[in-house]
Amino acid sequence: MEPILRLSGVSKTYDGGHQALKSVDLDIRRGEIFALLGPNGAGKTTMISIVCGIVTPSGGTISVDGHDAIRDYRKARRMIGLVPQELSVDMFETVIATARFSRRLFGRAPDEAYIEQLLKDLSLWDKRKSKIMELSGGMKRRVLIAKALSHEPDILFLDEPTAGVDVSLRRDMWKLIGRLRERGVTIILTTHYIEEAEEMADRVGVIAKGELLLVEEKTALMAKLGKREMDILLVEPLNAVPDALSEWNLSLEDEGHRLRYAFDATAEHTGIPSLLRKLGDLGIAFKDLETSKSSLEDIFVDLVSHRDEEQAA
């Protein structure tokens, strides 16, 4: 199946010489939830802005369901909805007028039933006649979402959608994303709430300093790069890790009551059996073992740190 969105060699260098994107190649599958992770200044918003026609790329091509995003801008842009980080609405306009206007802007015929249901889904129906300037910050964010969805896009970009919002809005947002996915909408989000990407996304992309470091199925990424830790709960505390255990990656925690072993779960030999035998040989008794796997956040930090080390070398 052809991707609904394809970026080929997309780059962006600003007049001052800053390279915000470095030849990004990315295919987004129809109907998937794709999470783009990266620190501030990594190029996430630049990439989204280029696809949405807000920023002009320095090079490369963008295809939106077969439409060239540069040459066939109107058809491509009509398929896309964007929820930006910053508020971008007329503060003196009412909520319902904003949604209606955005729908007309993309050439959609009026559909009052759709607009009503959209505002109800976002808990905005009771505020439909209120001016946006009268709303709370969370309600204003909901208006941005309504504006992005008013023309029934096939692709929805969410740029840090839940940053700084209340728990209620975050919960409603993720429920709405679930419903959109059921309708076949393709969703691309950037987020600092990595646990949300871990829960919601099908695939994860990691970007740093304008370079797309990798794109993986979420489960495959965690299986490939995830590390595990085993905590050995000791009967008697240790003052230091014995020299005889130096070949294992061990650290002492919990005031010497816990011996922590970090290992690669995908390796052919984890070293656990030999470590436990060695503990027995040394007369170090333990009462329990606990294992845990790394989170997506751990993987993300490791990837970015490793790339920084490579560039510094």
Automatic annotation (TrEMBL):
SMART domains: AAA (SM00382)
Record's keyword annotation contains Nucleotide-binding: yes
Alphabetized UniProt keyword annotations: ATP-binding, Nucleotide-binding, Transport
Domain ABC transporter intervals: 5-234
Gene Ontology molecular function, alphabetical: ATP binding; ATP hydrolysis activity
InterPro entries: AAA+_ATPase, ABC_transporter-like_ATP-bd, ABC_transporter-like_CS, ABC_transporter_ATP-binding, P-loop_NTPase
Record field: transmembrane: none
Protein's recorded name: ABC transporter ATP-binding protein
Gene source species: Stakelama marina
